Automatic annotation (TrEMBL):
This is Phosphoethanolamine/phosphocholine phosphatase. Belongs to the HAD-like hydrolase superfamily. PHOSPHO family. Its EC number is 3.1.3.75. It is found in: Extracellular vesicle. The lineage of its organism: Eukaryota, Metazoa, Chordata, Craniata, Vertebrata. The keyword Ion transport does not apply. Its main location: other. Its cofactor is Mg(2+). CDD domains: HAD_Pase. It comes from Turnix velox.
């Protein structure tokens, strides 16, 4: 493959935050206030562990979660982008780095018929325990001060590129499609050859603009904001023509 394409999941591939989506199976579709109060900035993974334990206590089962994940809509234009990628699989190595969870991502991508496009998926481990509760773990630990305690996407991307280089796979360009603040961190490591596709008006886009304003030229990659993923597909098409 000539190119590495990195996707985020929540509000990038899918048009919602999957952690919010699963509240559809909570009693009355809301969490109790005392549980919501336990959320701390930077410790979202631990908070979601408590949310999942609560949902387990309420009798929410694997099939309930699966149904929710399978029915989350794709973001605008995402189906067209996946069609484009499946036509050019020999050129693009596609990976996904997400702070959601493996069970939800896999359920969602399989339902959309696009799971096979992904070379690798990096996300928080999730499985069902003996009680049938969905349990969640942290992905790894890291020293990055800008990212949540359980995941730094920059560390994952950097290690992935190093590993692929050892296997003698060098990419001409890296493309990064994302929306959140935790997508900004890895996008800063992109080079002049690479392209960042931030979702227009979302935190990643705002942070890139902010950086450009404060330190012109510091953000190296070409920036192509998108509202529909068709715009991403069009940009990739242009690059293939060159």
């Amino acid at each position: 493959p000539s190119y590495l394409l990195v996707f985020d999941f929540d509000e990038t591939i899918i048009n919602e935050n999957s952690d919010d989506s699963i509240l559809r199976v909570a009693p009355g579709q809301v969490l109790p206030e005392h549980l919501r109060q336990t959320f701390q900035e930077g410790f979202y993974n631990q908070y979601m562990q408590r949310v999942l334990a609560y949902l387990g206590d309420q009798g929410v089962k694997m099939s309930d979660f699966k149904t929710v994940y399978e029915n989350i809509p794709l973001s605008p234009g995402m189906a067209e982008l996946f069609q484009f990628l499946s036509k050019h699989q020999e050129l693009f190595e596609v990976i996904l780095i997400s702070d959601a969870n493996m069970f939800g991502i896999e359920s969602s991508l399989r339902a959309a018929g696009v799971f096979s496009i992904f070379h690798k998926v990096f996300s928080n481990p999730a499985s069902f325990d003996k009680r049938g509760y969905l349990t969640l773990g942290p992905y790894h630990s890291h020293k990055c001060l800008d990212c949540p305690a359980n995941m730094c996407k920059r560390k994952i991307l950097t290690q992935y590129l190093e590993e692929r280089a050892k296997e003698e796979v060098e990419f001409q360009k890296v493309f990064y499609v994302g929306d959140g603040a935790n997508d900004f961190c890895p996008s800063v490591t992109l080079t002049r050859d690479d392209v960042a596709f931030p979702r227009k008006g979302y935190p990643m886009h705002c942070m890139i603009q902010e950086m450009e304003k404060k330190q012109p030229g510091a953000f190296q990659a070409t920036v192509v904001p998108w509202e529909s993923a068709v715009e991403v597909a069009q940009h990739l098409q242009e690059i293939l023509k060159k």
